[in-house]
Amino acid sequence: MSGSELAAQVAAVLEVDPETFQSSAEEEAEQLKAEVLDGTFDNAQSIIGLEQELYAVDDRTDALQRVPRRLLDRIGFEKELGLHNAEIQTTPVPLSAYGLKAQEAELRAHLHAAQQAVKREGIQLVSDGLWTVPPNGETATDYLCGNIEADGIRIATNMSDSVRYHAMANTDYPSGLRVDAPHVTLDAETVMPESLITSIQPHYQVAHAPDLPEHFTYALRVAGPLAALGANSPFFPPEMYDDVPPGRILADAWMEHRITVFEDVLNPQTGDGDPKVCFPPDFETVEDAIDDIAADRTIVPMDLPQGQRFDDRFRHFRHKHGSYWRWVRPVFDGPSHSAANARIEFRPLSAQPTIRDAVAFQAVFAGLMESLPRREHPLKKLDWQTAKANFYAAVCDGLNAEFTWVNADAQRTQSIDEIYGELFEYARDGLELAGLSTEQAHEYIRPLRERVDRRTTPARWKHDHVSEAVDDGVPFTEAVWGMQAEYADRQSETLVEGSFADWLE
Q1: Which InterPro entries match (predicted)?
Q2: Strands (DSSP E) along 90-189, which ranges?
Q3: β-pairing, 153-156 with 412-413?
Q4: CATH code of 231's domain
Q5: Which of 163, 315, 332, 429 has its CA 20 to 30 A from that of 181?
Q6: Which neighbouring-strand residues pair with 175?
Q7: pTM above the 0.90 mark?
Q8: b/e map of 133-145 (b: 16 or more CB within 10 Å)?
Q9: DSSP notation for 101-114
Q10: Where are the beta strands (DSSP E) in 258-377?
Q11: The predicted structure's pLDDT at residue 4
C-alpha cells in the first residue's frame, strides 16, 4: 500500500464521530450484559490459549530485520506493529493434560516450520522481551522515529500498514509517544517505539462468566510474582542511553523495561488524562468489568460494518478492547454463539527464551486460576494497592523485589521462598484439578521453579552477561550486542526443544 493510500484510509477513520461510536458501544454493552447473565458466555470447562510475539533478525549479524509481508503470509503468522514483528495465536483448547500438550505441540509445529522458511531468507525469528541491535546501517532512534507526512497525515515508515496503528498518531488523544527509563529518553511522533517490545499472553476462559471478577482478583494478586519470574528486558539498544558510565546503567537497570515502554508510549503524560496502560482495578461484578471497558476512551473510533461473527453484535464494544490496555484485562468475544467466552488475558509477560518456558507460564497461570478461587485462598484479601506495588516492584527488581503475600494461613509474608513455594503448590493443585497427574503438573512447573531456585530469570542472565563483560573491559555497546548474539545462538538450539534452564547448566 502506498503512503498516500494509507494516509487516505487514516483520514477516513479520523472522520468517524466519537460520540456516535461511544453511544453504539454503550448500547452493545447493555446487550452483552444480558447475554452474559443468560449464560451465553459460559463454557463447559475452562479454556486456555496463548499469544506469542517474536521479532526478526539477520541470522548473521543479529541486527533487527524487516520481514517481507509475503513471507509472513506464507508462514501463517500475523502482522504486529513493526515491520520486524510477527505473532502467532494458538487454538483455544480445554485446560487438561491433552490441552496443554496440544498447545505446546502447536507452537512447536508452527515455529519450527517458520524458522525453516525464514532461514532461507537469512532471517531468524527471536522470542525476546526487547530488541537491542538496530537494523544494519541504521540507528535505533532513526528506525523508531522515522516518519513522513502524506496529505497532512503522519505515517511511521517502519510500521505495518494497519490503519489503526497509524491513526493513533493523528488523533487528539494525548499519547505520550516517548520512552522515559533510567538513562534513556526518546521522543517520537508515532507509536512506533512500542515496537521495541514483544510478549507472550496466556489466556484463561472462565467456565462461568459471572465468576470472572473473582478469578480476576486473584490474577491481579499473582501478577507481581509472575512478572518477576518472566522478566526479560533489562537493556535498550546501547545508543539510546545517555552518556553515563556503564556501571551506572547496570546499577540502575530495571529487569522489565518492557512495561515502561508500553506505558510511556501510549499513556498521556502526567496531567493530560487517565492512563490507559496500567494495573487495572478489581471488579465486584461481571457487569462492572463490562462497564469499565465501555467507559474507557477509545483512541481510534471506527465505522464498523455488521459482519458474520456472533460477536459482531457487539462490534463497537469489541473494538474498544483494542485500546483497553490493562496489564490484566477481561475480554468478552467469540466468533460463534457456541464459542462465546469471557476470558482473562494476562499481559505483563515478556516473550520467553523457549516454547517450553512460555507454556510453563500458561500452565502455571491457568493452574492458579483453577485452584485459588476453588480453595478460597486468603490471597484475595491482599489489598489492591499492595498488589499494584508488588507488580511495579517486579518491573524494577525482578526476583530481587520485596513482595508482600498473604499465605494460606491468612498471614502476610515477604519470604521469597514461601511466596513461590505456595504459588507453585497451588498451580500444581489447579492443574491436578484439571486432570493432570502430579508428575505432569510438576513437569510444566519445573522450568519456572528452576528460576526461583537459582534466582535467575532471563533478565538476570542478560544483566550478568553484560556486567561480566564490562568488568573484563569490554565497551558497553559491544557487551550488550555480545550478550544478544549469545542469546540468539542459545535460542536457535533450544527455542523449539529445550528450556531456559538448559542455558544455566
Answers
A1: GCL_type2/YbdK_subfam, GCS2, Gln_synth/guanido_kin_cat_dom, UCP012666
A2: 93-94, 123-126, 147-150, 153-156, 178-181, 184-187
A3: unpaired
A4: 3.30.590.20
A5: 163
A6: 268
A7: yes
A8: bbbeeeebbebbb
A9: HHHHHHHHHHHHHH
A10: 328-333, 341-346
A11: 80
Residue 103 and residue 351 in contact, taking contact as beta carbons nearer than 8 Å: no
Q: Are the CB atoms for 425 and 436 separated by under 8 Å? A: no
For residue 30, give the amino acid letter: E
How many Cα atoms sit within 13 Å of 474 on the Cβ side? 15
Amino acid at 110: H
* 442, 492 contact by CB (below 8 A): no
Task: Extract the C-alpha cell encoding 184.
Answer: 534513556
SS3 (DSSP) at 205? strand
328 within 8 A of 384, measured Cβ to Cβ: no
Helices (H), 15-135: 18-37, 69-75, 97-119
Query: Could you give the CA distance from residue 105 to residue 125 in angstroms, rounded to a whole number?
Result: 18
The model's pLDDT over 439-478, given as tens digits with 9 standing for 90+, comes to: 999 999 999 999 999 999 999 999 999 999 999 999 999 9
Residues 6+ apart with CB under 8 A from 86: 53, 54, 55, 56, 67, 72, 75, 77, 78, 79, 80, 114, 125
Task: Calculate the CA 365 to chain-centre distance.
Answer: 14
For the record, the C-alpha cell of 24 comes out as 453504539
Among candidates 135, 128, 83, 243, which has minimal Cα distance to 483? Answer: 128
Alpha helices in 120-211 (DSSP H): 140-145, 163-167
Do the beta carbons of residue 340 and residue 310 sit within 8 Å? Answer: yes
Residue 219, C-alpha cell as written in the block: 490474577
Domains: count for the chain: 1
Report the C-alpha gap between 305 and 16 in whole angstroms.
Answer: 13
Backbone angles phi and psi of 229, in degrees to 5: -65, -35
The grid coordinates listed for 68 are 517481507
Cell of 212: 470472572
> Across-strand partners of 330?
344
Average pLDDT over residues 181-190: 97
Q: Is the dihedral of CA 298, 303, 309, 310 positive or negative?
A: positive
**Burial label, 409 (beta-carbon count in 10 A; 0-12, 13-18, 19+):** exposed
Interatomic CA distance for residues 19 and 38, integer angstroms: 29
Tell me, what amino acid is at 273?
A: G
Cα distance from N-terminal residue to C-terminal residue, the chain: 48
**Structure confidence by residue, pLDDT tens digits, 84-126:** 999 999 999 999 999 999 999 999 999 999 999 999 999 999 9
Cell numbers representing residue 207 in the block: 467456565
Residues 50, 71: Cα–Cα separation, whole Å: 22
Count of beta carbons in the 10 Å neighbourhood of residue 211: 14
Amino acid in position 432: E
Grid cell for residue 261: 515502554
Alpha carbon separation from 28 to 38, 42, 152, 290 (Å, rounded): 15, 18, 34, 10
Pull the grid cell for residue 205: 476462559
Whole-number mean pLDDT of the chain?
Answer: 95
Structure-block grid coordinates of residue 282: 478489581
Q: How far apart are CA 65 and CA 78, in angstroms?
A: 16
CB 417 within 8 A of CB 435: no
3-class DSSP assignment, residue 254? coil
Task: Give the amino acid at 408.
Answer: A
